[in-house]
Amino acid sequence: MLEERKQKVYEKLDELGIAYEKHEHPAVFTSEEAAKYSEGMEGAQCKNLFLRNAKGNRQYLVVLEHTKRADLGTLKTKLGEKGLSFGSDKRLMKYMGVESGAVSPFNLINDTDNKVEVVVDNTLKRSEKVNFHPNANTETLTVTYKDFLKFLKEMDKDPLFINIG
User: Fold this and answer.
1) Would you call 61 helix, strand, or coil by DSSP?
2) Residue 56 neighbours by CB under 8 Å, 6+ apart
3) Which of 109, 49, 47 is nearest to 79 (CA)?
4) pLDDT tens digits, 15-68
5) How many Å apart are CA 87 and CA 75, to the nearest integer?
6) From CA 61, how far away is CA 20, in angstroms rounded?
7) Separation of alpha carbons 141 and 139, rounded Å
8) What CATH number does domain 2-162 carry, 3.30.420.10, 3.20.20.80, 3.40.30.10, 3.90.960.10?
9) SS3 category, 55
10) Closest by alpha carbon to 98, among 63, 66, 134, 130?
Protein backbone atom coordinates (compact mmCIF):
# COMPACT_ATOMS: atom_id res chain seq x y z
CA MET A 1 0.00 0.00 0.00
CA LEU A 2 2.81 2.42 0.90
CA GLU A 3 4.57 1.73 -2.39
CA GLU A 4 1.30 2.33 -4.26
CA ARG A 5 0.85 5.70 -2.54
CA LYS A 6 4.38 6.78 -3.48
CA GLN A 7 3.92 5.50 -7.03
CA LYS A 8 0.80 7.63 -7.38
CA VAL A 9 2.90 10.73 -6.71
CA TYR A 10 5.71 9.69 -9.07
CA GLU A 11 3.21 9.03 -11.85
CA LYS A 12 1.52 12.41 -11.40
CA LEU A 13 4.86 14.24 -11.39
CA ASP A 14 5.93 12.36 -14.53
CA GLU A 15 2.59 13.14 -16.19
CA LEU A 16 3.10 16.84 -15.45
CA GLY A 17 6.70 16.80 -16.67
CA ILE A 18 7.98 17.67 -13.20
CA ALA A 19 11.54 16.49 -12.62
CA TYR A 20 12.40 15.35 -9.12
CA GLU A 21 15.35 14.02 -7.21
CA LYS A 22 14.54 11.20 -4.79
CA HIS A 23 16.29 10.87 -1.42
CA GLU A 24 15.66 7.73 0.62
CA HIS A 25 16.09 7.80 4.40
CA PRO A 26 14.76 6.12 7.56
CA ALA A 27 11.20 7.00 8.58
CA VAL A 28 10.98 10.48 10.09
CA PHE A 29 8.07 11.97 12.00
CA THR A 30 9.13 15.59 12.55
CA SER A 31 10.93 18.22 10.55
CA GLU A 32 13.74 18.07 13.13
CA GLU A 33 14.22 14.36 12.47
CA ALA A 34 14.10 14.94 8.71
CA ALA A 35 16.81 17.59 8.99
CA LYS A 36 19.24 14.89 10.11
CA TYR A 37 19.00 13.35 6.62
CA SER A 38 18.89 16.52 4.53
CA GLU A 39 22.62 16.88 4.01
CA GLY A 40 23.29 17.09 0.29
CA MET A 41 19.70 18.00 -0.58
CA GLU A 42 19.32 21.23 -2.48
CA GLY A 43 16.56 23.66 -1.63
CA ALA A 44 14.38 24.53 1.32
CA GLN A 45 13.58 21.82 3.81
CA CYS A 46 9.88 22.27 4.47
CA LYS A 47 7.62 21.73 7.43
CA ASN A 48 4.04 20.85 6.53
CA LEU A 49 1.24 21.24 9.05
CA PHE A 50 -2.25 19.79 8.71
CA LEU A 51 -4.64 22.02 10.62
CA ARG A 52 -8.38 22.35 11.10
CA ASN A 53 -10.47 25.29 12.18
CA ALA A 54 -12.44 25.36 15.46
CA LYS A 55 -15.67 24.21 13.80
CA GLY A 56 -13.89 21.41 11.95
CA ASN A 57 -15.38 22.44 8.63
CA ARG A 58 -12.15 23.76 7.07
CA GLN A 59 -8.85 21.96 6.67
CA TYR A 60 -5.53 23.67 5.98
CA LEU A 61 -2.15 22.51 4.75
CA VAL A 62 0.41 25.05 5.93
CA VAL A 63 3.82 24.92 4.20
CA LEU A 64 6.84 26.74 5.64
CA GLU A 65 10.59 26.38 6.08
CA HIS A 66 11.43 23.78 8.70
CA THR A 67 13.27 26.28 10.91
CA LYS A 68 10.27 28.59 11.24
CA ARG A 69 7.70 28.37 14.01
CA ALA A 70 4.03 28.64 13.10
CA ASP A 71 2.21 30.60 15.79
CA LEU A 72 -1.34 29.23 15.56
CA GLY A 73 -2.75 32.30 17.30
CA THR A 74 -1.32 34.65 14.67
CA LEU A 75 -2.16 32.22 11.88
CA LYS A 76 -5.81 31.96 12.94
CA THR A 77 -6.10 35.74 12.78
CA LYS A 78 -4.55 35.89 9.31
CA LEU A 79 -6.95 33.17 8.13
CA GLY A 80 -9.98 34.79 9.76
CA GLU A 81 -10.62 31.81 12.01
CA LYS A 82 -11.74 31.70 15.65
CA GLY A 83 -9.31 28.90 16.36
CA LEU A 84 -6.93 26.42 14.77
CA SER A 85 -5.65 23.07 15.94
CA PHE A 86 -3.79 20.13 14.48
CA GLY A 87 -5.99 17.68 12.63
CA SER A 88 -6.39 14.25 14.20
CA ASP A 89 -4.82 11.16 12.66
CA LYS A 90 -8.29 10.09 11.51
CA ARG A 91 -8.93 13.47 9.87
CA LEU A 92 -5.46 13.43 8.28
CA MET A 93 -6.16 10.05 6.73
CA LYS A 94 -9.61 11.14 5.55
CA TYR A 95 -8.48 14.31 3.79
CA MET A 96 -4.82 13.69 2.92
CA GLY A 97 -4.62 9.90 2.77
CA VAL A 98 -1.51 9.60 4.95
CA GLU A 99 -0.39 8.96 8.50
CA SER A 100 1.21 11.51 10.76
CA GLY A 101 4.81 12.21 9.74
CA ALA A 102 4.12 12.05 6.00
CA VAL A 103 2.24 15.35 5.59
CA SER A 104 3.21 17.07 2.36
CA PRO A 105 1.75 19.05 -0.54
CA PHE A 106 2.04 15.85 -2.56
CA ASN A 107 -0.73 14.41 -0.32
CA LEU A 108 -3.12 16.75 -2.13
CA ILE A 109 -3.26 14.08 -4.81
CA ASN A 110 -5.46 12.22 -2.28
CA ASP A 111 -7.76 15.21 -1.62
CA THR A 112 -10.27 14.08 -4.23
CA ASP A 113 -13.07 16.23 -2.77
CA ASN A 114 -10.84 19.34 -2.85
CA LYS A 115 -11.45 20.15 0.83
CA VAL A 116 -7.93 21.15 1.92
CA GLU A 117 -6.88 24.79 1.61
CA VAL A 118 -3.19 25.53 1.09
CA VAL A 119 -1.26 28.25 2.90
CA VAL A 120 2.36 28.91 1.91
CA ASP A 121 4.83 31.05 3.80
CA ASN A 122 6.13 33.92 1.67
CA THR A 123 9.76 33.12 2.46
CA LEU A 124 9.55 29.99 0.30
CA LYS A 125 9.21 32.22 -2.76
CA ARG A 126 12.95 32.87 -2.43
CA SER A 127 13.76 29.18 -2.76
CA GLU A 128 14.78 27.77 -6.09
CA LYS A 129 13.97 24.25 -4.89
CA VAL A 130 11.80 22.71 -2.17
CA ASN A 131 11.64 19.28 -0.54
CA PHE A 132 8.59 17.19 0.34
CA HIS A 133 7.64 13.59 1.18
CA PRO A 134 5.87 11.59 -1.58
CA ASN A 135 2.98 10.19 0.55
CA ALA A 136 5.55 8.41 2.76
CA ASN A 137 8.02 9.60 5.37
CA THR A 138 10.82 7.34 4.15
CA GLU A 139 11.65 9.48 1.14
CA THR A 140 11.99 13.12 0.26
CA LEU A 141 11.61 14.54 -3.24
CA THR A 142 13.34 17.71 -4.39
CA VAL A 143 11.47 19.76 -7.00
CA THR A 144 11.82 23.32 -8.23
CA TYR A 145 9.65 25.92 -6.55
CA LYS A 146 8.12 26.66 -9.95
CA ASP A 147 7.15 22.99 -10.32
CA PHE A 148 5.74 22.98 -6.77
CA LEU A 149 3.37 25.76 -7.87
CA LYS A 150 2.58 23.84 -11.06
CA PHE A 151 1.65 20.81 -8.97
CA LEU A 152 -0.62 22.91 -6.74
CA LYS A 153 -2.36 24.35 -9.78
CA GLU A 154 -2.89 20.85 -11.20
CA MET A 155 -4.45 19.87 -7.84
CA ASP A 156 -6.85 22.83 -8.28
CA LYS A 157 -5.26 24.70 -5.37
CA ASP A 158 -4.88 28.45 -5.28
CA PRO A 159 -2.57 28.90 -2.29
CA LEU A 160 -2.77 31.77 0.12
CA PHE A 161 0.68 33.32 0.51
CA ILE A 162 1.29 34.95 3.89
CA ASN A 163 4.13 35.72 6.29
CA ILE A 164 4.24 32.98 8.91
CA GLY A 165 6.31 33.26 12.06
Assistant:
1) strand
2) 91
3) 49
4) 999 999 999 988 888 778 887 888 788 999 999 999 999 999 999 999 999 999
5) 15
6) 21
7) 7
8) 3.90.960.10
9) coil
10) 134
